[in-house]
């Protein structure tokens, strides 16, 4: 329909716009041919709106289309169908459908396929009918009713925000306990001491250039020598400052820590009208502030952490309590990534809140934070898992899984990490977390962990019963996770999980060693005669990620095998040779090229994670001992809580 034909519908003689056109008699014309033509246009617009609404409902409210088609048209079990392609988020990639069809079938669906099909079809019919009813009800409403519903929804969100904050009447007094192992002596071995000092110098280089060229902004562009801000943080500023606080503290960079604290006190502002990633803001800002408080005892960090936690609570205002991925900090309105399986929330995002929110309740005296993340567990435990696996997508409205895509890398990774660390952080009292973790790991090992022809152990991605023999850099954290959980494994399995951690560490080291720059790609593959090598151009980049050295750190602490220090030092040399520039450190666009192709971003997690883990590898074990501290997924430090909810007793100043 030509745009000119629609314009009269959205204006009135008085220029009132849409509101005037829907208003009372003053804006309406008398009867006659012109009015008849306008009525025809209005009818056509209603029909067009109905069509769009039905399409919109099919996209966002119906179950995943791939499972619908496979179950209805082909009468096959949805567990055996590859998922539909989806638009990837940052760092992910849309899959080639032909590749998916060519992959070997690895697993069959458990149980009776006919019964599973019948259950799935019944669920599809129920969701389909509900979506159609909702669309029909919406179409029958007058524009004034729709506007009223929108206003009522906004008022409900505002009431929910007030309710959550009503419990909070100010911060209670907390007796700060001196942190255990926050500062350690220098290593006795001169060569180790020299290497540790070199890593501290790298931190100074990264920090000083951020301060010189991007102070107060989120991140640094070290080639352009200017600030860089990701949309993940909306208009919140200072991501690098908050992310680096605990690294500055443990490296005893006292002046830098004080100037960072002063910036937080004077400039860190969460009263912004912007949409943020709940996950990223939680792990970097909430985690960084909590860690800084537990190390220093400075009250400003506790105050800011709780203030930000309250700002994030509206994200949980969904029918199931599964939080939205994105939240407008001003309005409290949330939504999910549009590419995420029909408006689903992502496992690694809503599953990576537990550690921080338990500590927010501990430090604020407000139970609402713990209640929100405990409810997430309840929802998950009430769902049936395909072959015991947790799909990456969960619809926060229906409470049903989206696409059957399972990954221990991007979209899934830190959910499993937080199950294990919730058990450890609770002083080994959170038996539910322990049970969920080991059941998930058993399913992952059965259905997703494989060996290459030359004996490299890797974790593939599971897509509706098919395996994609690809492993991401993000997945490399799992070596450290398996080793960290080994002591609490089922009887007779401790050595097995330590060995599994060592095998994953070796595979990830190979992914580094097989590149020109000796730093690993974003993803590497095990198919077509290729092992631990990236074969697609959009998987060859390195953005200063920490997951490989994270696993080295845990393996060093738990085994003291000298090869992990050797491999860590190789990473230090590669960073210095290929990522260091005059203005800081930059990621690389292709790790297989002999010439550097910089991406011109110094990620905040390079200071929070990569350099921290490297520093700990070349420190004695009494610096941040693992029995007293838990690292969140951004390497921020949270103390182990005793059974009474208090952190472990401090024993040194």
TrEMBL record:
Q: Which SUPFAM superfamilies match?
A: Seven-hairpin glycosidases
Which top EC class applies here?
hydrolase
Read off the InterPro entries from this record. Answer: 6hp_glycosidase-like_sf, Glyco_hydro_47, Glycosyl_Hydrolase_47, Seven-hairpin_glycosidases
Disulfide bond entries: 476-508
Pathway of this protein? Protein modification; protein glycosylation
For this UniProt record, give its keywords in alphabetical order, as a comma-separated list.
Calcium, Disulfide bond, Glycosidase, Hydrolase, Membrane, Metal-binding, Signal-anchor, Transmembrane, Transmembrane helix
Positions annotated to bind Ca(2+): 633
The record ties this protein, via Pfam families, to: Glyco_hydro_47
Q: What is its EC number?
A: 3.2.1.-
Q: Which GO terms describe its biological process?
A: carbohydrate metabolic process; ERAD pathway
Source organism superkingdom: Eukaryota
Q: What is this protein called?
A: alpha-1,2-Mannosidase
């Amino acid at each position: 329909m030509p745009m000119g034909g629609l314009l009269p519908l959205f204006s009135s003689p008085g220029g009132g716009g849409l509101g005037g056109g829907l208003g009372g008699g003053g804006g309406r014309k008398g009867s006659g041919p012109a009015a008849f033509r306008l009525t025809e246009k209005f009818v056509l617009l209603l029909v067009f709106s109905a069509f769009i609404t039905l399409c919109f409902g099919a996209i966002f409210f119906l179950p995943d289309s791939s499972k619908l088609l496979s179950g209805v048209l082909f009468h096959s079990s949805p567990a055996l169908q590859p998922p539909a392609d989806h638009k990837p988020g940052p760092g992910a990639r849309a899959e080639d459908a032909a590749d998916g069809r060519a992959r070997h079938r690895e697993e069959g669906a458990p149980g009776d396929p006919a019964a599973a099909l019948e259950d799935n079809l019944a669920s599809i019919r129920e969701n389909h009918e509900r979506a159609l009813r909702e669309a029909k009800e919406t179409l029958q409403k007058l524009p004034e009713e729709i506007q009223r519903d929108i206003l009522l929804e906004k008022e409900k969100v505002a009431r929910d925000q007030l309710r959550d904050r009503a419990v909070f009447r100010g911060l209670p007094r907390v007796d700060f306990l001196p942190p255990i192992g926050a500062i350690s002596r220098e290593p006795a071995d001169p060569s180790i001491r020299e290497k540790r000092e070199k890593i501290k110098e790298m931190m100074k280089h990264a920090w000083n250039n951020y301060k010189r060229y991007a102070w107060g902004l989120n991140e640094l562009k070290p080639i352009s020598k200017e600030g860089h801000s990701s949309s993940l943080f909306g208009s919140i500023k200072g991501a690098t400052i908050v992310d680096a606080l605990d690294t500055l503290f443990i490296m005893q960079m006292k002046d830098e820590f004080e100037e960072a604290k002063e910036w937080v006190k004077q400039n860190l502002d969460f009263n912004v009208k912007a949409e943020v990633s709940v996950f990223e803001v939680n792990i970097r800002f909430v985690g960084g502030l909590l860690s800084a408080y537990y190390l220093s005892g400075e009250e400003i960090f506790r105050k800011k952490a709780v203030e930000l936690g309250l700002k994030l609570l509206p994200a949980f205002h969904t029918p199931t309590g599964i939080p939205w991925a994105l939240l407008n900090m001003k309005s409290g309105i949330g939504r999910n990534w549009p590419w995420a399986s029909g408006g689903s929330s992502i496992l690694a995002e809503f599953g990576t809140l537990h550690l921080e929110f338990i500590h927010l309740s501990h430090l604020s005296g407000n139970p609402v934070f713990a209640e929100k993340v405990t409810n997430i567990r309840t929802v998950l435990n009430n769902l049936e898992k395909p072959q015991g696996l947790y799909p990456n997508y969960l619809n926060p409205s229906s409470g049903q899984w989206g696409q059957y895509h399972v990954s221990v890398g991007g979209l899934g990774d830190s959910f499993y990490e937080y199950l294990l660390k919730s058990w450890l952080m609770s002083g080994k009292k959170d038996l539910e977390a322990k049970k969920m973790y080991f059941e998930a790991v058993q399913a992952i090992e059965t259905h997703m962990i494989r060996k290459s022809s030359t004996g490299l152990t890797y974790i593939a991605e599971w897509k509706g019963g098919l395996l994609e023999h690809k492993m991401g850099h993000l997945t490399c954290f799992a070596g450290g996770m398996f080793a960290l959980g080994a002591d609490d494994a089922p009887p007779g399995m401790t050595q097995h999980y330590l060995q599994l951690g060592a095998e994953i560490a070796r595979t990830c080291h190979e992914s580094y060693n097989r590149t020109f720059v000796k730093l690993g790609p974003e993803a590497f593959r095990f198919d077509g005669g290729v092992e631990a090598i990236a074969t697609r151009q959009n998987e060859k980049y390195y953005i200063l990620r920490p997951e490989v050295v994270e696993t080295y750190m845990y393996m060093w602490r738990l085994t003291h095998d000298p090869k992990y220090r050797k491999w860590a030092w190789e990473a230090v040399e590669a960073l210095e040779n290929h990522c260091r520039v005059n203005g800081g450190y930059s990621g690389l666009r292709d790790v297989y090229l002999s010439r550097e192709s910089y991406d011109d971003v110094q990620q905040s997690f390079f200071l929070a994670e990569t350099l921290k883990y490297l520093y700990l590898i070349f420190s004695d074990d009494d610096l941040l001992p693992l029995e007293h501290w838990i690292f969140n997924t951004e390497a921020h430090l949270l103390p182990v809580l005793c059974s009474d909810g208090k952190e472990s007793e401090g024993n040194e100043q």
